[in-house]
Specification:
single chain; 341 residues; mainly alpha; 13 helices
């Protein structure tokens, strides 16, 4: 009997539940970090150190009434948050978490990841349109314009990595960063401009501050989820936190060695018994989690540090700064690959 299906199903089950639980942990982390940055305690009532507060919020949302505006489109109104969650969790299945530990190991996994991040805008846009509210509609329109503007720069940053690795497979891109240079073989050192571009565009694609204009409470009440309540609102919340955690894993995979340990080749040379062992897999899982955790903290840190852009600043940065820079960087990387290969 072929056990590959059972292994894949087990990994998929673990990955889905991991991201579902991680969303609650990230909500708690965001509240605690923002509290410390603003010299206040943050959640400290429900459970030890307030750790159970996100779970109490989930229980609250489950029992809250599901309100659908009288003039809204009920089917699309319900479809939008569901699609956001499915796309967010689907993107997590493409990340290699250790050598051989990936739900969907495809030769074009990078393209599929970019496709999933592209269609996630449909959830926001459909939510804005189906609510039949001017605030929601403006939030949906802002999100679609923002994602289109920054997808181009993100795609070119990814292209520069694909040119260096010579593959569209994420696991191959990670292995390409191993080399004999230790961490200097990571793409962040080989392609620093691409790394900066990708991190900035990841903030924009996940609608995180300072790119959170689709929500913009001071202008649009709540943006595209103004007319949502109960678990539908909770699903948007879940999708937002899963999205930026998946984005953290994507950043790590493309530019920071993925699951590779720092100086992994030197470690394996000293301890050859670790090669293809369970202990190496555990170390690689720990490595990618620590790296992704750092970038998740960066997402939270930036949100509570930088003010929101004005809309014209957002468009100017996307079209007049990031896009030309990403295009020049991709051309230079292509020339570098031709010369040094």
């Amino acid at each position: 009997m072929d056990l590959a299906w059972y292994w894949t199903a087990l990994i998929a089950f673990v990955v889905v539940n991991f991201f579902m639980v991680s969303a609650s942990v990230l909500v708690y982390a965001e509240r605690k970090v923002s509290g410390y940055m603003q010299n206040r305690p943050g959640p400290n009532r429900v459970g030890p150190f307030g750790f159970l507060q996100p779970f109490a919020d989930v229980v609250k949302l489950v029992f809250k009434e599901n309100i659908v505006p009288a003039l809204a489109n009920p089917f699309v109104h319900s479809l939008a948050p569901l699609s956001m969650v499915i796309i967010a969790l689907g993107a997590g299945s493409l990340i290699p978490y250790a050598k051989g530990v990936v739900v969907a190991d495809m030769d074009v996994s990078v393209l599929v990841m970019l496709a999933l991040t592209s269609i996630s805008v449909y959830g926001v846009t459909l939510a804005g349109w189906s609510s039949n509210s001017k605030y929601s509609l403006l939030g949906g329109l802002r999100s679609s314009a923002q994602m289109i503007s920054y997808e181009l720069s993100m795609g070119l940053a990814v292209l520069s990595v694909v040119l260096i690795a010579g593959s569209l497979n994420m696991a191959t891109i990670v292995e390409d960063q191993a080399g004999g240079w230790g961490i200097l073989g990571w793409n962040v050192f080989r392609n620093p401009i691409g790394a900066i571009l990708f991190i900035v565009t990841a903030f924009a694609e996940t609608n995180r501050a300072p790119f959170d204009l689709p929500e913009a409470e001071q202008e649009l009440v709540g943006g595209y989820h103004t007319e949502y309540s109960g678990m539908k609102f909770g699903m948007f919340f879940l999708a937002e936190y899963v999205n930026f955690f998946v984005a953290s894993f994507f950043i790590v995979t493309m530019f920071f060695g993925g699951y590779m340990l720092p100086f992994e080749s030197l470690i394996l040379a000293q301890f050859p018994g670790l090669v293809d062992s369970v202990w190496l897999m555990i170390l690689q899982l720990g490595s990618v989690l620590v790296k992704a955790g750092f970038f998740a903290y960066l997402f939270i840190w930036v949100r509570w540090t930088l003010p929101r852009f004005k809309y014209q600043q957002l468009m100017t940065l996307g079209w007049k700064v990031l896009l030309p820079l990403a295009l020049v960087n991709a051309i230079l990387v292509a020339f570098g690959v031709i010369i040094f290969s």
